[in-house]
Amino acid sequence: MIQKIPILKIGHALIASIQIELNDESAVQFKEDILNQIKATGATGVVIDLTAVDTVDSFLGRIIRDAALMARLMGAQVVVTGIQPAVAITLVELGLDLEDVVTALNLEKGLARLAELTEGASHHV
Amino acid sequence: MSEPVVIPIEDELDIVRARQEGRQLAKDTGFGPVDLARVATAISELARNIYNYARPGAIELTPVQKGSRRGLQVVARDEGPGIRDVEEAMRDGYTTSGGLGAGLPGTRRLVDDFEIVSQEGVGTCITARKWLR
């Protein structure tokens, strides 16, 4: 059973907010959808919002990290936003290495961070 | 001790089912949001271990009590290949999947009690408990 996460485009950015409890297959699909949407839209940045996510295990953590690294290979920056205190605590205690991932407190700050990261790039699109 | 809630881990969706059941039971027990995340994440890791390496197996969730302390017990029981060297499997950085997987050491850090009994060719039983502070 695959559940789709809507990916919205605003300007040069894609925004995806995870609002459902993701099973593994749906998480893998989400990662691929993001990469395909970068290709299809020419987006230079992606915000993945985790405000509504109350559990991130090693599998989902790895998916998010991989999505960020893969998007970067395609020339797009990813900012992960809205990580809840409980999620931050469990991720560190679990020992997941997400240091490669750019984060921001919330969607608003994430979009601002994305603008910094992609500054210049968007003028050429 | 109450009757355990047993969630067989056969399908990938059972991983989600197990952690949702666990989160609800932990909530009923009185855990706060951080411990709820710890419990749900630990269950998710244990259930995925079963799904990936050791089917058939099940997650058993039981509200427990020790003196005046209440808690939740999570038992991950499988009839998989067993763990040859439990000590090695508990070492940080150990992984058979070659991934970023947090493995058993990461899972142990999320709970208060953690015990493994494993026999090669027979299976593995991991017992984890989280206590209310």
Spell out the key features of this protein.
heterodimer, A: 125 residues, alpha/beta, Transcription Regulator spoIIAA, 5-stranded mixed β-sheet, 5 strands, globular, B: 133 residues, alpha+beta, Heat Shock Protein 90, 5-stranded antiparallel β-sheet, 4 helices
Commentary on this structure:
- The complex is a heterodimer of chains A (125) and B (133).
- With 125 residues, chain A is an alpha/beta fold.
- Chain A has one domain: Transcription Regulator spoIIAA (2-Layer Sandwich).
- In chain A, 44% of the residues lie in helices and 18% in strands.
- Chain A is built from 4 helices and 5 strands; from the N terminus they run ββαβαβαβα.
- In chain A, α1 (24-41) runs parallel beside α2.
- The mean pLDDT of chain A is 94.
- In chain B, a hairpin with a 3-residue loop joins β4 (113-119) and β5 (123-131).
- Chain B has a single domain, classed as Histidine kinase-like ATPase, C-terminal domain (Heat Shock Protein 90, 2-Layer Sandwich).
- Helices cover 38% and strands 31% of the residues of chain B.
- Chain B is an alpha+beta fold.
- Chain B has a 5-stranded antiparallel beta sheet, covered by helices on one side.
- Chain B contains 4 helices and 5 strands, in the order βααββααββ.
- The interface between A and B is medium-sized, with 26 and 28 residues.
